[in-house]
Amino acid sequence: MDQNIRLLNILHLLYYRMKRVTIYLVISCLLICCKKDEDSSFLISLKQTTPITLIEFEDNISVKLDYEHPEGYVGFFDPDYLSLEIKDSRLPNADYYHLIPVDPPNHTLSVTGEILIEIDAPFVFGNGNSETLTFTIRIEDKNKNWSNKVTTPIITVNK
Questions:
Q1: 43-158 maps to which CATH number?
Q2: Cα(67)–Cα(73) distance, rounded to whole angstroms?
Q3: pLDDT per residue as tens digits for the range 73-84
Q4: Is pTM beyond 0.70 here?
């Protein structure tokens, strides 16, 4: 009888240890698997691109973007920090530009707004009479996180 009671006590202790370990494993898995989605916090969208057909060296391209950032971390006070990336589809590397901040210093507030970007008049690289291109644009915030990318419609450049 004493052996049966000891055996039941041992089994009872093992059951509670297993239960405790299982609870710890479930909590650990939840903490590890839950991840903040940072990609959706800073969003830009393409509103307008004009003109989409132009003559080289004559017309600049205007691109209007809408932006939304929950903490207002768009733009930098340091004029040497280049946070606007614009990539011409015909070139391997992007160009970078400075954006002024849209929020007051040392403050965090949700911002939405519009950015008007003027891209210098493109020109035809090759020997043909026309070329097509697109621009892909994204913005880096003060936390070094990039917004989503937006791409302009196809733009035709004629000689």
A1: 2.60.40.2550
A2: 11
A3: 788 888 899 999
A4: yes
